[in-house]
Write a sequence for this structure.
């Protein structure tokens, strides 16, 4: 591997986004599965870095998941998006940041399609007026929330308490980065680093002391596939694709996976459990599996947030071996507690994949 | 636990582990197996191909991609009429190869 | 009649045009930016389809242009046209007046790193056809260590909207098969694969080369564009493609991957080209008048083109054009 | 068989902006198939789909729309990155799916009929809660892969979301907040004017009719479609 | 004359004779025991059936002694063979006549076992032991000289075969050369011994006989005794079942390696390919060289010319088929699909109720649509009620499968086609492809349906006045397709048709001597280049009288000739249709 070659590509694919004053839009999946990640993101940018990230109570889903499950027409998704843009405009913002990769892809696609087919934009403008009596303005800058963390990665590094380093060996942790397909595969220039060697997560890993693992199936999809997951009969597709990725990364013995799409960590996490249940095979050392985390969770960890505040207990793959490697203190008793130490019981232990 | 789905087998042709014994043996007696340009003339003219999936150019590929069982199944359809040999632009003696595959 | 003819570019086209013009009694002047004449062909080891040593041809051409006035390490930095003809300023400050100008500036090789998914410049064992040719010439390349499996990828930087080159680069197919045979000669035990979309064997003896590649050299031609390349733990290359004739995705591990890079117009001539008022065509090559009777002429009276500056061309094409441009210039001078 | 747009399928398909964007000309190089996650596991080859669409043959298109083939794609759009002709097979598939649904041909394939499940679940989530995915409708029993932790989350949903800082069903901003009624109403209106409501009602109606035909309740039919899984039919060995 | 009853020089002969008789007896028992039970019964039966018995006698004399067939082909060679075989036969006969009419040793009565022993060698060395009468002496000398004249021709043939009209001869090994040398010298030695009575020549004569007879079983001269058995077996109507057993074994040993088939074989266009001819095949198989014999069996075009030209009519093609069949075909052919996909053919049958003629173009004709079009024109012009059986593609007739020795596998196709033909209700089946014609004639059971090749059919139509043809002035040459000509003797019909449309020129080799086009499906292994050479040779032969067009009656010949012919190649149907 010739790193200079990659650096050259990274240098070529840098997008220009401002570092403040954003209209923040949530992700259906992230808030449902990794609620603490969005909380952490806003805490970091607002409180730790002092930036202006505004959230409007009236914004909704972008409809991206329904759109990519072919449940709603393209015009519907575009009009919902136009409504979000209208909310941004009404709130006095020009920069738009979303938490979801599917959204990010759909926003990008929508803006590009409108650019190519202005008559479609006009049609959507009419739809929005007919349905909501709103008018929208297209955002000046569009970013994904991981772009922001990437942009602030050195600021975060300055506040870093636990770098991505194995405290026992002193060596950097081996980190697999997994980029959501819709981040830059459709429009390579819209993502940091482009489509083939995206830099958005690599930049974070490097800045926080980790070592990036580049394995053959790095670019492969996690296997979500929308309808291929939502319908039980199709889930074989989804788990098989994750399986393929893990088989490919296994020889590199990665310590952790970091993702920028809210869905991917769910699949990379839960499918490890399913693969273990079905085949008895586990990845990572000692049968614990390889933790698949969101970039907010990783940022939170290195900045010294409490692992249970970050919601790491909602992952099926045990997080404790990683915490120990990084030397992060945690209280095992508090892992499954509710607010104010409320006893919520303990999840059952799976058959094959180890839990602490 | 029954999840209602399971891992699917990969259909990738894994060139690293393809067993080429039959093809290599064939190549020794019929060096022209290498010269197929997949033009499809054989398939288009095939008498059996009129009724079935029989396709010699595909059959050769099957042998090269480790699908020997499929190939042998396909040969069962062949009527040995030899039209394929007549139309092959590369002059491959297809009928001979078909017979040799079975030996 | 001792009119000066300015020839920009001392490759095959420039040299051959100069030779012919001199025989016609005109005074060709070659301006070559590098330190030797010969252009790309001088960097080549052997020529398709019959593995003829390139040096043979280049030496003969060099011998023929011995008497031609030649400026090496020199570029044209300015050029003006008036009623007397053209007035060029060279990088060595010298001024040259000429009645006609021949642009024989040739091509550049597509920068393989632009086709990111192939990982040139990132994965150690991905190399270009030009580098492989150098290996044949010198016998040295640290990437080539008794490889067991070698792959060739066709159409790198050609027929590809994503790199803005939609044209076919014409010579790469034949070159790939030639090189596949040659590497098989060096490493007879290696398995050699070529990944092609169409094998465009357009010339005399080229289809025979294809047949020979298959039959005598046992090179395996797979129809399908390589989709992505990655590196495994051992530094070997994992490639994915579809075997489109089989209709199934295919995966394999290779020791070396050769990218058959396309020709692009040599862009270092752009400033002079602009000054002469010659535009590029949709493929990014110089626009000639038309591709039939006006192939050597341009929008600018007195400015002629020859060789790969107007489109990807083989050596015989280029020599043919160089000869025809000489006739065109001769007629222009004597009009 | 009678279906909507009979004889005009090609015409109707080519009205879709995603065809305009994603369907240029194919040179059969196969990069889309090589990278496609679906092609590895399903009897699926995106290149072939693009070819059929490019052919503009009404009969071929009808066959395609009736088949399971168009439903295998996971819409990851990996194919879009690589295509040397700047086609977007993923977008082509999306427009095919839409036409299959609107024409009614989707009901003829096992995988097409599954649209009932996603339309019903996702549209009701959007219209009722303003989200595509909503934890209270994400049930462990039908998502066993949610795992023991998922089961635990389902059992203590409010406590866990409270612990992790969600504003589950609360007012004002925050994760999983209750979307104000006026916003939900606007979503409904958007659905109405952009054709989503029509599509949704059509799919639910088709499913109901099919359920009646099969002598099932809507719920039973839903579960049948949701769980049906015939590897031999779909998998590519 | 010597007054002895014994001299040691007779011993070599006696030994040799005893050996060869024993060997032949064992061989005879072996061959007969290897025959399938029914065949054996047939054999015994044929020996006592007057008709076959008469044929046996006729051919034993005609073929074994007088070599009638060789005379027909090449009188010089005919004389050579007759001189040696008949001459030898006669001196043995005369020897025995003398033994019983003249008392060999006056005054000495030799009886009992001793008598049998002396009678065994007396006729062979008669002159040594007894006096001949002048008449017998003349006859003996006459036949001896006749043999020697034959031998002289053989020597000339050996030195320069072209003088006697033979281009290619077999190449033999040491054993064959030695026995040939022995054969050549037996009679000169006998002549010298008889005339000079020098003891050494009597010894040489006897030793020559020993060499000849001891080597006989291991060389081509084994054909001399085997031929008789072969003739009997052939007349019994026995067919080849296995390549090296029973009847085939008799055929193998009957082949005299005369080499006539070498020149006849279309493959003999160069030295390398002439090694693929039947004479070599028989020799290799005789010598149990299975690999080579299998190779030749797969290379053979199966044109049948060697069988036709063979002085013994040895069915070498049948042996090759059985040799091919002996290599297992490890695929269980599955043609069950034929029975599931019959709608297509049935579809085309609905439009025409009970046609008189059913036309089956066949696979190869599908590649030459002009033949199909011409046939349609002809049938329409003749106002025939016909139905086109395989207009949208059909099923192979099964012949190629049989050619590869897979008779059982071919059955599915035969059955399906039979079903379709019978269903049509037609009374006449017209075929365009001689390959099909052969198999339909021989393997199909289509009772009540007349099977014709289109040459015959067109000829019938013309003769019945249903087709009016305009005679033009084009010069045609007609090529006889192997499977129409040699196989079924269809020689006159096409020529008569052509006489009606233009001028018929002769080829150099015609009718049963016609040379295979080289495209034959019979061969599995010939390369395109090899086939091209054969074709070029065949075309040259056809171009002997500079015709304007070559006409044939087989789609495969048509396609094959078209590659190499300097003039237009047409099917007879095409020529006919053009003349309507």
């Amino acid at each position: 591997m010739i790193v200079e070659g990659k650096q050259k590509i990274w240098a070529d694919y840098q997008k220009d986004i401002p570092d403040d004053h954003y209209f923040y839009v949530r992700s259906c999946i992230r808030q449902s599965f990794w609620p603490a990640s969005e909380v952490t993101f806003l805490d970091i940018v607002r409180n730790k870095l002092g930036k202006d990230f505004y959230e409007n109570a009236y914004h909704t889903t972008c409809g991206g998941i329904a759109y990519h499950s072919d449940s709603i027409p393209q015009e519907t998704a575009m009009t919902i998006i136009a409504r979000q843009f209208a909310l941004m405009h009404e709130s006095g913002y020009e920069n738009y940041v979303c938490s979801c990769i599917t959204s990010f892809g759909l926003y990008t696609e929508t803006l590009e399609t409108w650019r190519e087919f202005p008559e479609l934009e006009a049609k959507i403008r009419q739809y929005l007026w007919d349905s909501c009596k709103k008018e929208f303005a297209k955002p000046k800058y569009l970013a994904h929330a991981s772009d922001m963390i990437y942009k602030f990665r050195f600021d975060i590094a300055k506040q870093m308490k636990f770098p991505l380093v194995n405290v026992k060996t002193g060596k950097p942790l081996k980190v697999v980065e997994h980029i959501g397909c819709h981040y830059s595969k459709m429009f390579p220039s819209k993502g940091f680093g482009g489509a083939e060697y995206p830099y958005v997560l690599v930049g974070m890993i490097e800045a926080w002391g980790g070592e990036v693992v580049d394995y053959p199936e790095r670019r492969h999809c996690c296997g979500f596939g929308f309808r291929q997951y939502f319908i039980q009969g199709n889930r074989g597709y989804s788990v098989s694709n994750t399986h393929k990725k893990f088989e490919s990364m296994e020889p590199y013995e990665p310590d952790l996976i970091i993702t920028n799409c809210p869905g991917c960590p769910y699949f990379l996490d839960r499918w490890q459990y399913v693969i273990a249940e079905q085949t008895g095979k586990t990845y990572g050392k000692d049968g614990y599996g390889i933790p698949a985390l969101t970039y907010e969770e990783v940022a939170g960890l290195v900045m010294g947030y409490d692992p249970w505040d970050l919601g790491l207990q909602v992952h099926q793959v045990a997080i404790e071996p990683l915490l120990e490697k990084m030397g992060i203190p945690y209280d095992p008793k508090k892992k499954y507690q509710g607010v104010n130490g409320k006893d919520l019981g303990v999840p059952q232990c799976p058959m094959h994949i180890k839990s602490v | 636990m029954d999840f209602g789905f399971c891992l699917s087998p990969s259909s990738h042709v894994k060139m690293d582990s393809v067993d080429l014994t039959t093809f290599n043996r064939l190549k020794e007696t019929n060096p022209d197996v290498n010269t197929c340009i997949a033009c499809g003339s054989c398939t288009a003219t095939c008498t059996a191909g009129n009724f079935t999936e029989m396709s010699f150019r595909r059959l050769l590929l099957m042998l090269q991609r480790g699908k020997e069982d499929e190939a042998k199944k396909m040969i069962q359809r062949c009527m040995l009429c030899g039209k394929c040999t007549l139309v092959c632009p590369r002059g491959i003696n297809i009928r001979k190869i078909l017979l040799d595959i079975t030996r | 009649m001792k009119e000066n003819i300015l020839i920009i570019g001392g490759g095959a086209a420039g040299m051959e045009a100069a030779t012919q013009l001199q025989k016609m009694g005109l005074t060709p002047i070659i301006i070559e930016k590098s330190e030797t004449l010969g252009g790309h062909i001088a960097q080549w080891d052997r020529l398709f389809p019959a593995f003829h040593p390139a040096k043979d041809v280049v030496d003969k051409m060099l011998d023929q242009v011995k008497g031609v006035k030649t400026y090496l390490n020199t570029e044209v930095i300015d050029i003006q046209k008036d009623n007397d003809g053209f007035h060029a300023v060279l990088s060595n400050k010298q001024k040259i007046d000429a009645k006609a100008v021949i642009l024989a500036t040739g091509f550049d090789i597509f920068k393989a790193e632009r086709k990111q998914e192939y990982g040139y410049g990132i994965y150690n064992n991905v190399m270009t056809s030009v580098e492989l040719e150098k290996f044949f010439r010198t016998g040295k390349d640290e990437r080539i260590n008794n490889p067991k499996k070698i792959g060739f990828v066709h159409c790198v930087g050609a027929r590809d909207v994503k790199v803005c080159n939609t044209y076919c680069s014409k010579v790469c197919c034949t070159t790939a098969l030639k090189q596949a045979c040659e590497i098989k000669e060096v490493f007879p035990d290696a398995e050699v694969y070529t990944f092609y979309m169409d094998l465009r064997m357009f010339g005399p003896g080229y289809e025979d080369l294809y047949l020979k590649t298959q039959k005598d050299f046992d090179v395996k031609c797979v129809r399908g564009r390589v989709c992505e390349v990655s590196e495994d733990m051992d530094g070997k290359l994992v490639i994915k493609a579809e075997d489109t004739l089989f209709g199934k995705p295919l995966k394999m591990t290779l020791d070396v991957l050769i990218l058959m890079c396309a020709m692009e117009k040599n862009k270092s001539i752009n400033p002079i080209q602009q000054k002469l008022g010659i535009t590029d065509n949709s493929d990014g090559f110089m626009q000639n008048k038309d591709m039939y009777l006006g192939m050597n002429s341009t929008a600018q009276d007195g400015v002629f083109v020859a060789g790969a500056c107007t489109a990807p061309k083989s050596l015989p094409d280029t020599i043919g054009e160089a000869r025809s441009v000489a006739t065109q210039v001769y007629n222009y001078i004597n009009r | 068989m009678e279906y909507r747009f009979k004889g005009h399928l090609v015409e109707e398909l080519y009205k879709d902006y995603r065809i305009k964007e994603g369907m240029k000309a194919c040179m059969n190089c196969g990069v889309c198939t090589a990278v496609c996650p679906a092609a590895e596991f399903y009897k699926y080859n995106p290149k072939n789909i693009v070819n059929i669409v490019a052919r503009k043959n009404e009969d071929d298109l009808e066959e395609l729309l009736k088949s399971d083939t168009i439903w295998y794609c996971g819409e990851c759009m990996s194919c879009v990155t690589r295509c040397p002709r700047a086609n977007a097979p993923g977008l082509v598939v999306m427009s095919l799916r839409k036409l299959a649904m609107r024409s009614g041909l989707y009901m003829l394939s096992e995988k097409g009929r599954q649209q009932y499940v996603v339309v019903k679940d996702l549209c009701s989530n959007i219209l009722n809660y303003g989200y595509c995915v909503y934890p209270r409708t994400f049930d462990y029993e039908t998502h066993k892969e949610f795992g023991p932790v998922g089961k635990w989350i389902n059992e203590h949903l409010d406590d866990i979301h409270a612990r992790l800082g969600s504003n589950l069903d609360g007012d004002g901003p925050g994760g999983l907040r209750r979307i104000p009624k006026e916003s939900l109403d606007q979503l409904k209106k958007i659905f109405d004017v952009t054709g989503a409501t029509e599509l949704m009602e059509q799919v639910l109606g088709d499913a109901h009719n099919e359920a009646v035909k099969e002598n099932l309740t809507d719920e039973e039919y839903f579960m049948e479609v949701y769980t049906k899984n015939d590897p031999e039919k779909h998998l590519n060995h | 004359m010597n007054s002895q009853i014994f001299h040691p020089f007779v011993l070599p002969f006696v030994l040799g004779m005893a050996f060869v008789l024993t060997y032949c007896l064992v061989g005879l028992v072996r061959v007969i025991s290897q025959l399938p039970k029914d065949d054996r019964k047939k054999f015994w039966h044929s020996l006592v059936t007057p008709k076959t018995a008469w044929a046996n006698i006729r051919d034993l004399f005609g073929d074994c002694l007088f070599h009638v067939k060789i005379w027909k082909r090449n009188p010089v060679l005919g004389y050579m063979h007759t001189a040696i075989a008949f001459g030898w036969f006669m001196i043995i006969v005369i020897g025995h006549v003398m033994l019983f009419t003249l008392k060999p040793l006056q005054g000495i009565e030799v009886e009992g076992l001793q008598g049998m022993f002396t009678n065994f060698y007396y006729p062979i060395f008669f002159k040594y032991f007894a006096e001949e009468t002048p008449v017998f002496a003349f006859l003996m000398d006459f036949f001896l000289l006749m043999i020697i004249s034959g031998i002289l021709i053989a020597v000339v043939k050996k030195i320069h075969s072209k003088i006697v009209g033979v281009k290619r001869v077999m190449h033999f090994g040491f054993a064959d050369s030695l026995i040939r040398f022995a054969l050549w010298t037996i009679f000169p030695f006998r002549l010298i011994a008889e005339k000079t009575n020098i003891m050494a020549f009597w010894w040489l004569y006897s030793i020559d006989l020993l060499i000849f007879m001891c080597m006989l079983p291991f060389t081509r001269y084994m054909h001399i005794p085997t031929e008789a058995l072969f003739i009997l077996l052939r007349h019994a109507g026995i067919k080849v079942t296995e390549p090296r057993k029973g009847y085939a074994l008799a055929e193998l040993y009957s082949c005299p390696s005369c080499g006539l088939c070498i020149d006849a074989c279309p493959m003999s266009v160069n030295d390398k390919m002439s090694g693929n001819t039947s004479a070599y095949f028989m020799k290799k198989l005789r010598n149990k060289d299975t690999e080579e014999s299998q190779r030749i069996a797969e290379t053979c075009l199966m044109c049948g010319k060697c069988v036709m030209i063979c002085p013994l009519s040895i069915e070498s093609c049948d042996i090759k088929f059985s040799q091919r069949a002996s290599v297992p075909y490890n695929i269980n052919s599955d043609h069950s699909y034929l029975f599931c996909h019959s709608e297509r053919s049935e579809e085309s049958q609905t439009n025409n109720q009970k046609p008189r003629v059913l036309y089956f173009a066949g696979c190869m004709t599908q590649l030459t649509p002009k033949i199909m079009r011409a046939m349609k024109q002809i049938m329409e012009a003749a106002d025939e009620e016909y139905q086109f059986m395989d207009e949208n593609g059909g099923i192979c007739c099964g012949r190629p499968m049989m050619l590869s020795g897979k008779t059982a596998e071919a059955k599915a196709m035969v059955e399906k086609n039979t079903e379709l033909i019978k269903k049509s209700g037609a009374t006449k089946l017209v075929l365009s492809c001689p390959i099909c014609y052969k198999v339909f004639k021989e393997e199909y059971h289509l009772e009540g349906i007349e099977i014709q090749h289109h040459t015959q059919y067109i000829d019938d139509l013309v003769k019945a006045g249903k087709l009016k043809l305009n005679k033009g002035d084009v010069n045609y040459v007609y090529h006889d397709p192997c499977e129409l000509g040699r196989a079924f003797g269809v020689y006159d019909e096409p020529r008569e048709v052509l006489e009606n449309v233009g001028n018929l020129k002769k080829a150099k080799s015609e009718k049963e001597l016609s040379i295979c086009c080289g495209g034959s499906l019979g061969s599995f292994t010939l390369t395109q280049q090899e086939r091209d050479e054969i074709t070029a040779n065949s075309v040259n032969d056809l171009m002997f009288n500079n015709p304007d067009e070559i006409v044939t009656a087989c789609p495969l010949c048509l396609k094959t000739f078209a590659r190499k012919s300097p003039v237009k190649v047409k099917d007879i149907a095409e020529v006919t249709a053009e003349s309507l």
